[in-house]
Amino acid sequence: MQRNRRYVTRTPFLAWVYLALAVIGLCATWYFNLQAFKTLGAEFTPLAFVRIGFEGSPILGSLAADFWVGALASTIWMVAEGRQLGIRSMWVYVVLALVVAWAFALPLFLFMRERWLSRGGSTARIAAARLTGRSHA
Known about the structure:
- The protein is mostly helical.
- The chain has helices spanning 13-40, 46-54, 58-85, 90-99, 102-118, 123-132.
- The longest helix has 28 residues, at 13-40.
């Protein structure tokens, strides 16, 4: 009788880099979020969070615009890439981006994507399907 063998694959180094960035993104953003809660109290609302980024100086406005456009573009890519690769529960990453931090959710997604690819996900098959306009499923 042949036993099912579970093949162990190593998680790529790049995945660990992404995971480290997710932890840094979580800690750094929440350090400043907690400082904002202390300072603003009940005035710290989602609208205030967005508005404050554009106030103060043109540099802050530039950083806020850069963040929001980049975050939106990468979130759209993250969902599309997850669907293309067949990664389940993509909604979790969007919720994490909105509720926890984009700087946490995107690197966490990239970590999980690298692990998925290292365990047999095929980007070559997906790339060929994209080039030919065919479904890869």
